[in-house]
Amino acid sequence: MCEILWPILPDEVWSKIRDFNEDTWTGEVSKSWSENGKSGEAIGAVRIIQVGSARIRQDLRGYSNEERFYTCGYFGSRHFPFMTIKQRYA
After folding, report:
1. What mean pLDDT do residues 29-53 have?
2. Looking at the domain assignment, is residue 90 inside a domain?
3. Residues 6 or more apart whose Cβ sits within 8 Å of residue 41
4. 3-state helix, strand, coil in the chain (%, to 5)
5. Domains in the chain: how many in total?
6. Per the domain annotation, does 89 fall within a domain?
């Protein structure tokens, strides 16, 4: 497991990551965009993220602006390894 300590307030983190269609904040994703034109808050939005030469399709399955979370799924196989991340706020 990887642990990330965010040295900023949760509202500041959420303001950077809340748009599902914009995933370049991770530093690993070079480009991300909406495949089906839905907003980054709309359940059913499909995004494409590019990591190196790999393109990954994900769909937005749950979203709450009030609770500051979203969940997503993947189409096809995953093209890069994932790890469990625990996040804390300073």
Report:
1. 94
2. no
3. 18, 19, 20, 63, 65
4. 10, 40, 45
5. 1
6. no
Give the C-alpha separation, 28 to 3, whole Å: 17
Residues in the chain: 90
Q: Which CATH number does the domain housing residue 30 bear? A: 3.30.530.20
pTM attached to this predicted model: 0.75
When computed from its CA atoms, the radius of gyration of the chain, rounded to whole angstroms, is: 13
Is a pLDDT exceeding 60 seen at residue 61? yes
Among candidates 65, 64, 27, 69, which has minimal Cα distance to 49? 27
Name the amino acid, one letter, at 25.
W
Is pLDDT of 2 > 50?
yes
What is the C-alpha separation between 48 and 55, in angstroms, rounded?
6
Domain with 66 in it: 2-84
